[in-house]
Amino acid sequence: MTGQGAIVHIGCYTAEGGGRGTGIVAARRDPESGALTPLGTVAATPSPSFLVRHPRLPVLYAVNELPTGEVSAFRVGADGDLDLLGVRLTGGAAPCHLAVAPDGGHLFVANYGDGSVTVLPLDERGAPGERSDRVRHEGHGPDPERQEHAHAHMVSPAPGRGPLLAVDLGTDSLYRYDLDAGSGRLVPRGPRVRTAAGTGPRHLARHPDGRRCWLVGELDGSVGAYELTDDGALHERGRVEASGRAGHVQPSEIAVGPDGRFLYVANRGIGTVAVFALDGSLPELVAEVETDGEWPRHFALTGSHLYVADERADMVRVFRVDPASGVPTAVGEPVPVPSPTCVLP
Predict the structure, then answer these.
(1) Tag placement on the chain: N or C end, fewer CB within 10 Å?
(2) pLDDT at 224
(3) Is residue 117 a part of any domain in this protein?
(4) How would residue 5 be classed by pLDDT, with cut points 50, 70 and 90?
């Protein structure tokens, strides 16, 4: 935070990933209007396609989505400037997602290219050390082009004592792991949870109650509802369509609103954000809004605003979210950002 508003960091695809970005961009956010004022590129790092912050320290982590995967760590300055703390190899290919353990002691990375999950210990400054583990998923799904082998797409550590959930698009599976904090190694907890064949699970969103989560299927355009039990098991309660529109829908990001009443899903191909009410056993579609682009890859909810990164339209779109209905309404003009892939308030 600064006296003039909050800083937002935006990850982008660079030329190394076929994009037009130059690295990590910073923007100043007006908490009242939601407006973003771009401040320029603050880290010229290759294809930082996903970003996350340390839970306690002023440190930001980025995957470098390269054939030989890397993770970069940066110390965050007051005005959003980034100073490099270190770069580490993930041991996998094309890392696309990462998350920090709730205690801040380890970093988890999903390597899309080879379907593996990497663990990196973090020191007292938040700098990553040499990887302590890497587990590789095996198998494939029915789609010969997208599911020819495993493709880890997300890592989601539990806020409490539950297992790390690893979402794998290629094997139609969620894997559960416990972290041995002493050795930094992942211990499988029970068999993997399989989705319907051809789902292509991409990302999941947890409810604040810790008992429910929702999983978006990139390949079949679905949202699966799950119940989480204390022992880390997941039980599917049913599935709904990610969009009410016609067209080839490829859902990307999914998130629960801060009060736990609504679920949001970005739909690529048709350029919408769908809003679902969560007061029933399954999500119920209540609204679907245009993003003015076709490829909303990621979004972030913060305060009363929603920020949507449209990778192909080279913009971040700002919405104000109605607190009663949960429905976003676009405000202002799109913010030009080349090949944006992740918005981190």
Answers:
(1) N
(2) 98
(3) yes
(4) low
